[in-house]
Amino acid sequence: MINSMQPTPQRPARTFRSGLRSALIAGAFALAGPMAAADTLADALAGAYNTSGLLEQNRALLRAADEDVARTIAGLRPILNWTTDITRSYSNRSGPGTIGSRGSTDLNAGIVAEWLVYDFGRTRLSADAAKEIVLSTRQNLVSIEQQVLLRAVQAYMNVQRNTRFVSLRQSNVRVISESLRAARDRFEVGEVTRTDVAQAEARLSLSRSNLARAVGDLERAKEEYLSVVGNVPGNLSQPRSVPTLTRTEETAKQVALRNHPDMLRAQHDVAAAKLNVLVAEGAMKPRVTLNAGIGVTERLNGSTAGETGSFGVQIGGPIYQGGALASAKRRAFAQADAQLGVLHQTQDRIRQNVGNAYAILEAARASAAATAEAVRAGRVAFDGVNEEATLGARTTLDVLNAEQEYLDAQANQISAQADVIIASYAVLETMGELTVRDLNLAVQTYDPSAYYNLVKDAPAALSQRGQTLDRVLRKIGKQ
Q1: pLDDT greater than 60 at residue 19
Q2: Phi, psi dihedral angles at 230 (to 5 degrees)
Q3: For residue 352, how far is the Cα from the chain centroid?
Q4: Dihedral of the CA atoms 469, 470, 476, 479 (nearest 10)?
Q5: Which SS3 state, helix, strand or coil, does residue 188 take?
Q6: Spatial CA neighbour of 354 closest among 419, 259, 427
Q7: Long-range Cβ pairs for the range 223-227 (8 Å, 24+)
Q8: Does the predicted model carry a pTM greater than 0.85?
Q9: Coil, strand or helix at 383
Q10: Could you read off the pLDDT of 53-109 as tens digits, one per residue?
Q11: Between helices 53-74 and 122-188, what is the axis angle to 10°?
Q12: pLDDT higher than 90, residue 292
């Protein structure tokens, strides 16, 4: 009777070993990532740069700042205005010996010209301040570009991370299902109790719940990828390398303080604020202008007509405006002090961000190394517990716990690998080197000076440059 029952326990033992092989193979594929031809991280970065609505918004803001320069420069040129009016005038007279009414309708037309000759440099200073704002806005555009690209890196790696999580969880469900079948087979022959079967059933339910959560996380990651990159993610490949970071942390901080767009933007804002102080002081000084006008008058109900003309130099300035000019000057000084404060805060923030990024990167690297060792050890432990269970030295719960520890180690390794890549690009962002040019992406880069060069001289609509500008604006509007 004993001999006839000996082959029966061998079936669950084979089942356990088959489950182990499934776990190891599936886990290896989950850690290795997709093998087929796939979209690359460079593709995602290029897509984010080409489709970002945030970048388009800030490019429009830069064009608006360019126009502020043109508007200020226009104040140094002659200003021509035309006027016309039709006036009806009449009078009634009554008195001793005089009774009657008289009236006339006059048509007046004229051209008035004004040209600023001298205002103690106020308009020139305003133009210089506007140019500093343009430079500041350009740096803000670079900062936005870095944010868009870093978000694309995060979206790419999160899709890949969650894709591998789903694969791992699916493998876990298959393995737990095999373990449950094995536990039921061993229960039928009396090797385990009903408790072992119930433990396997509970673990399978938990595994399915984890799989459902992983699928949900993957769907959310795909939505983020679509929002950032502009297309649905396909088969994303594991980046073959991470950015090479050869600088020390202290050297990286010095580079960031020199080159980070936020730092450069703050410097230009300070320069603009100081110029605005001089502009406010210039508002208290007189202005010299040339004025000229020519006009014609024709009486519509008669034959009378006439011409008028004038030319002169006008000098004028404020005497008393209720303290408004003094208030404007004090406000300009306060704004300059505030921008200096922003500059100092930006300097401290940039240094801190670089330090934080390096700390996160070192932690991610250490975690990746530790999780790799944990995966190796977890595989050995799972193998040993599984073999011991076939000999009756381990319970079903021991096998399930060993499998769960091995699964957790694999998941932690996947997450750590993604964190290393994200942290590496985050270091570049804190140094101001996460741009399309720095990454050498195959995209057509936006030239922030192209529009400025068209409008900086305030071209008139009918000029050749003005017509060129109209074509550019129409092209922008169609995008």
Answers
A1: no
A2: 100, 0
A3: 20
A4: -150
A5: helix
A6: 427
A7: 224/155, 224/158, 224/159, 225/44, 225/155, 225/156, 225/158, 225/159, 227/155
A8: no
A9: helix
A10: 999 999 999 999 999 999 999 999 999 999 998 888 777 776 666 556 677 788 889
A11: 180
A12: yes
Q: Which residues pair with 47 in a beta bridge?
A: none
Euclidean distance between CA atoms 54 and 49, whole angstroms: 10
CA angle, 37 then 40 then 41, to 5°: 160
User: In the prediction, which pLDDT does 24 show?
Assistant: 45
Model confidence over 105-158: pLDDT tens digits?
A: 888 899 999 999 999 999 999 999 999 999 999 999 999 999 999 999 999 999
Q: Determine the Cα–Cα distance for residues 92 and 94; give it in Å rounded to an integer.
A: 7
Q: Which helix (H) or strand (E) holds 224?
A: helix 194-229
Long-range contacts of 367-372 (CB under 8 A, 24+ apart): 367/412, 367/416, 367/419, 368/413, 368/416, 368/417, 368/419, 368/420, 370/416, 371/409, 371/412, 371/413, 371/415, 371/416, 372/413
Calpha distance 193→189 (Å, rounded): 10
Tell me the helix, strand and coil percentages in the chain, rounded to 5: 70, 15, 20
* CA proximity to 49, closest of 125, 144, 149: 149
Q: Give the whole-angstrom CA distance, residue 461 versus residue 459.
A: 6
- Predicted pLDDT of residue 170: 92
